[in-house]
Automatic annotation (TrEMBL):
Domain Transcription regulator PadR N-terminal: 7-80
Protein's UniProt keywords contain Coiled coil: no
Molecular function in Gene Ontology: DNA binding
InterPro entries: Tscrpt_reg_PadR_N (IPR005149), WH-like_DNA-bd_sf (IPR036388), WH_DNA-bd_sf (IPR036390)
Pfam families named among the record's database cross-references: PadR (PF03551)
Keywords of this entry: DNA-binding
Name of the protein described by the UniProt record: DNA-binding transcriptional regulator, PadR family
Species of origin: Jiangella alba
Length: 204
């Protein structure tokens, strides 16, 4: 998936300004596809140049103007093309597994700090994803309500179910990462209790 496809998917709900896209992006899509705000406006201009979205310039206050972006037929066709193709899997580059694989070069304290940080990060993420699932169930996501209002009622079940399916995958992944880090802490306790030395604990 690219930022382009994430933005196209968001615009299927309703036309938006760049500011509105960033707000909705941060509140939903960023949970599964993060992107700096500095990348969004240039990508919108490229999408407009490539004929995938239209932009209407409308007043903003007395003197200013703003651009309101909407997906067009070419953008919908591109989104359908992307949705129908297989996404190739990328080679793994996992800094946390790499570091864990060489904890013997560290100290027990440093290794524990890394694993506690890992647990904290994914515990926060888990809370956010579970909150998003609750909001989906309660239809508290404003963009979801807007999307449902524009689609036939017969499609509503699938729209909600697929979004829940995606976030349930993130919940499962976060829980797995927490469990993995806790297993690592138990391993460190066992090794230390048995007097197994680590290079980082050597005194010069």
């Amino acid at each position: 998936m690219s930022l382009r496809h994430a933005l196209l998917a968001t615009l299927t709900a309703q036309p938006m300004t760049g500011y509105e896209l960033i707000k909705y992006f941060d509140g939903s899509i960023a949970y599964v596809w993060s992107a700096p705000h500095s990348q969004i406006y240039p990508e919108l201009r490229r999408m407009e140049r490539d004929g995938l979205i239209d932009a209407d310039v409308v007043p903003r206050g007395d003197r200013a103007q703003k651009r309101v972006y909407s997906i067009n037929d070419a953008g919908r066709a591109e989104l359908r093309r992307w949705s129908g193709e297989l996404i190739p899997y990328q080679s793994e580059r996992d800094a946390y597994r790499l570091k864990a694989a060489h904890f013997e070069q560290s100290s027990y304290d440093a290794a524990r700090r890394q694993l506690h940080e890992h647990i904290g990060h994914y515990a926060r993420a888990l809370q956010g994803w579970q909150h998003m699932l609750d909001d989906l169930d309660a239809r508290r996501v404003s963009l979801l309500r807007e999307r449902l209002s524009r689609r036939p009622e017969a499609e509503h079940e699938a729209i909600v179910a697929f979004r829940k399916f995606a976030f349930e995958g993130e919940v499962a992944k976060a829980q797995m990462e927490i469990d993995w880090a806790r297993k690592g802490l138990a391993l460190l306790d066992d090794l230390e209790q048995r007097g197994v030395p680590l290079a980082g604990d050597d005194n010069p």
